Amino acid sequence: MLSRINHRIYAFPTVLFLFLTLVFVSAGVSIQSEERAARVSKANTVAEQVKISLEVFSTERIQALHNVMRNWPTFEPNQVDWFNAQALSLMGMQKGYSSLAFVNAKGNIEWIATPNSGVKTRLDNRLVGEPMSELGLTISSMSEKFESTLIFSPQTQHHHILIGRAISPQEPEHGYLIAGFDVQSILGVMLGELVGPQFNFKLAADNAILFESGVLVNDGTQVSLAPFSFITRDFTLSMQSQLSPYNTGMLVIVIGLIMTALVSYVLHKQLKGAVSLSDSQQRYLTASEASLDALLIYQPSDEDFVLVESNSYSRYLFRGACDVLHAMTLSEQMRYLELHDIPKHVQSVAETGVPYESHLPLTSDKVAPEWLKIQVVKAANNIAITVRDVTERFKAQQDLKRSEEKYRRLVDGMHRHFVYTKTVDHTFIYVSAGLEKILGYAQETFCKNEPKYVRQVPDETFEIREIIARGNKPEPYLVHYQSSGGKSVVLEFSDTPILDDAGALIAIEGIARDVTKELVLQEEVFFQANHDQLTGLLNRYAFDAQLREILLHTNDSAEYTPFSVTGKSGGINSKTNVTAINLHREPAKPSVMCFIDMDRFKLVNDSCGHPAGDKLLKEISTIFRQFVNGQDLLARIGGDEFCIIFRNQSLDEVTQCLDKLLLAVSNYRFVYDDKLFFVGASIGVIEINESTQSAEALIKAADNACYKAKHLGRNRYFVFRENDSQMAIDDSENQVLHALHKALQHDGFELYSQAIMPLTVPQEEQGAHLQHYEILLRLNSKESGLISPGLFIPLAERHGLMNKVDLWVVDNTLKTLESNPAHIDNVGKVAINLSGITLGDEMALHKIAQRMQSTTVPAEKICFEITETTAVTNLNAAKHFISTLRDIGCSFALDDFGAGMSSFTYLKNLDVDYVKIDGSFVRNIVHDPIDHATVTAINNIAHSMGKQTVAEFVVDNATAEVLRKLKVDYGQGFALDKPKPLAHRVQWRVKLASA
């Protein structure tokens, strides 16, 4: 028997040692294999990333060269300058080029552009004039593919790739474009960023190693990619992840062997200690097994007691925690079982010898019993404790207690909810603890004072109580309360009537929840759906809906009251954008709708960008808000379009308000990035009454009225009258359009002229100077006589006829001058206006240039006027237009200058001879110091640029005198000369000369 036990003590630890040794050795070998595979995977992944990066780099540069060749100018007078600017711009945006060369059609080098940075290059402008072969590359003029070569430069000690192609194989006269790339510099930057020092790699092309790092070791972890294209050359890449200095597998084996030996030794010691059980312990176990109670024997140790013996029933009684309890002292066991008073009683029994007995609830969930009967007696120097499970006796009482606690925790732990009980007269007698978290009132305080905290009850309160009185459950309803912090809180109540056996109402129970946040969220969503996000005004959708409601109740003669918010919803008390209709029938009062379109808004957007336009719209909407009250509607319905509905106001009252609004807009100055802009508002006004047919017709009529205001001079309003039906407006426009078409076919226009007088010359000497006048246009209709340009020019622009009108004016002005050669001798400049459409029409430019080259009128006597707005909006087209006609000999004037005050930036880029100061600054220059300062600034800056100035709208002699003091060169206006037919001016001058 003893030999068998000794065999177990030594054999089992030995077998365990051998088994664990095998496990750790296998794990170490497996880790080494996985580490090798990981190195291969990592090297392959990085190699693919390098390949992709090089291919992307190559594709972007090749595509950029294609773009340069596609944009190669056809008529550029200096292709070398154009190429140099494009090459420097390209090399500034895309790094990696060592040089860009332009070779002419004869194969000679025209120019070589190199980057400003320290990129190494083997090419420079010392090769200009040399044949293309000096670059080391031969290119076919008919091929659409890039030719390339790889060259090692002794100068830079780097490899270079040269690629080139004919700029246009179909047009070989454009020459060739050649690009050079410093391969070592490109690879050094890109591979340094992507690979890092933990990889060995080698990059080769054409049997030459272009870039390498470290030494590739042939241990099965090297990765080689298939050849790939980089700047039209095939590259190969080999890569290997460096070996870690630590052999993880061997470390696992060594540490595992040490731990295996330690575990085997500890197991051997435990087995050896288990054999030392005494015979006395065996006898005790036999006796204690017969007990029906758990028997525990404790021995005193360091002011505590240690468990020395326990029977099998104790292991059953404390099942699940027996092993944990066995290793603890008595005090620790009692703390673990949450029987904190027992150690004190055990200590008393040990000192006095008086037994202790008690029934204790076991609240710990670590053991099965719930109630215990404990007896403590002194046995010699030890303590014997017997424990019996008496759970069944107290189970019913304990179950009831747990059920009550569970219900209370459930009710009191509800988030933003609480339950309640009310009497039949709706007085609260119970609320759960959740109410205090919502309103901040104690439960008893709320039940006693609930009516004091109510701020708003449902309108259908009486109906709800009748439903409950009948024993039926009503729909949930909302009640507004004031919290202890003074905030408004909205609670949703769901009442359930409680009936007795006879069906009589005895109480009301239910659950309530805090819906304040939900309602605020609903208001915010509603606000965002119905308001413009930029200005906070009503949007087009909400405006259309409310306009239809207004029309509906205007026609029904019902009094209508809209409620709206002008700011973001901020709480449950804020009013939402809803429409409330008072069903009490009263005669509807008139309303007036105003359709507003901002003038010069596009100039701000084009000059400074959309952020500036957004800022302008916000500030303008603030001005509009100052002229509406709570019952009016103000909306932004488009980009720069607004609508106002003035409710319960007559047309006369509204027009008085609009006068103030327009004055405020005209006095407003928009400043952005040190640029000053003047804006205006064109307003269409229409009255809303019972005869209004639909919202669409109303908006269309207001839009047309706005259009009329815009073309009557801007920053004004135009009232649509009841007798001015839309059909009449359309008929009038159709008549003008018909007359316009007829005039173009049958020369129905009439040329007028207005003199542009020199202001720096005394009046008595002005007759000795050559004439300078502007050509004006009138449309002559047999049905309605002369038609103002303010009517037919906007129609011509809208219907794409303005370039034809401009060509007619140019041609007929030249015809008139050609037929009066004597008059030409007395003319200094004849100014002809050109529209923005003509300015961007290449065909119109060609026709005007041909006409100027074929006329007998000297080109230097013709001055073309273009407006500031069209010049700034189409800057490139304007520069091309001006340069083409200036080459012929014509001069140019920039009309309406200063409207945006951003034009000083562009004035340097526009080769004009005259600057015509916008009349809005001139007409009030005598009385307005701001206008006086503006004209002074424009005049001084124009003179500093070598340009002459012309002041428009000189309405009286006082204005002319101020302009003379400012040394403005010319003036134009009724005070100096009134418009007259060109034929009269020509004949009068001829007669005067003959006399």
Structural class label: alpha+beta
CATH architecture of the largest domain: Alpha-Beta Barrel
How many helical elements? Answer: 32
> What sort of overall outline do the alpha carbons produce when their principal axes are compared?
flat
Count of extended strands: 41
Textual characterization of the structure:
The structure is a single chain. Strands 31, 32, 33, 34, 35, 36, 37, 38, 39, 40 and 41 form an eleven-stranded mixed beta sheet that branches. The protein contains 32 helices and 41 strands. A hairpin with a 2-residue loop joins strand 6 (199-205) and strand 7. With 995 residues, the protein is an alpha+beta fold. The protein folds into five domains: 47-240, PAS domain (Beta-Lactamase, 2-Layer Sandwich), CATH 3.30.450; 281-397, PAS domain (Beta-Lactamase, 2-Layer Sandwich); 417-514, Beta-Lactamase (2-Layer Sandwich); 532-724, Reverse transcriptase/Diguanylate cyclase domain (Alpha-Beta Plaits), CATH 3.30.70; 749-994, EAL domain (TIM Barrel, Alpha-Beta Barrel), CATH 3.20.20. The chain is flat and about 150 Å long. Keywords: Membrane, Transmembrane, Transmembrane helix. It holds the Pfam family GGDEF. InterPro entries: Biofilm_reg_signaling (IPR052155), EAL_dom (IPR001633), EAL_sf (IPR035919), GGDEF_dom (IPR000160), Nucleotide_cyclase (IPR029787), PAS (IPR000014), PAS-assoc_C (IPR000700), PAS-like_dom_sf (IPR035965).
